[in-house]
Write a structure and sequence with these properties.
By secondary structure, the protein is mainly alpha-helical. The chain has two domains: 86 residues; 94 residues, Arc Repressor Mutant, subunit A (Orthogonal Bundle), CATH 1.10.10. The radius of gyration is 21 Å and the shape is globular.
């Protein structure tokens, strides 16, 4: 999940100062809060629990200097309140998701079907898959292996193995496919420029 917010070192320092006056203790509290947020988002079956935890921290960091002097209570409760709002937004957005099989697939092909083009796409695909984390690469390769009922069963097993539902797996794979497509297109442009 992207919030569009990024934090500067100064903003991060403000956040740590709000958590504790001792920088080392503040660092420990920050790590504890982040771990808790990741667990909360994972427990609520959010596809990108770590990304949502980071988004929560970014939102709080942006407001830390404003609320620091007036906020009463432990700071981690403020983080959890922001997380609750993000979960609500996430759950509302999940309700309108469409199966990828039902989505618009009228995109133009990356290249023509000539042997040279296919080899070039294959080389770029291998290169881009190599850039993925090992677990993501294995997931991507497994996800597209079978057809028919075997495909459905395999994807259900993959989702269960990851501890997520089938819809969350489809969303994750849609995002990964989008990243791979962008990577392949950049690779093809750079190889055609050479």
């Amino acid at each position: 999940m992207k919030t569009g917010l990024t934090i500067t070192q100064e903003t991060f320092d403000e956040l740590l100062a709000w958590l504790d006056s001792d920088r080392e203790n503040a660092g420990h509290k920050y790590e504890e809060i982040r771990r808790s947020l990741v667990k909360i988002f994972a427990w609520r079956k959010c596809v990108d629990a770590e990304g949502m935890a980071d988004a929560t921290i970014n939102i709080v960091a942006q407001k830390a200097c404003q609320i620091r002097s007036t906020y009463e209570g432990k700071p981690h409760f403020y983080f959890y309140g922001v997380a609750r709002n993000l979960i609500r937004e996430y759950e509302n957005s999940r309700r309108v998701l469409v199966s990828l099989e039902d989505g618009d697939t009228t995109n133009t092909p990356i290249v023509d079907d000539t042997d040279d083009d296919i080899e070039q796409v294959d080389a770029c695909l291998s290169k881009c898959l190599g850039r993925l984390a090992s677990q993501d690469r294995k997931l991507a390769l497994a996800y597209y292996q079978k057809d028919g009922q075997a495909k459905i069963d395999l994807r259900r097993e993959l989702a269960e193995g990851l501890g997520i539902d089938s819809n969350a797996l489809r969303v994750r794979m849609h995002r990964m496919r989008g990243l791979l497509t962008q990577c392949i297109e950049r690779c093809l442009k750079s190889s055609s420029a050479n």
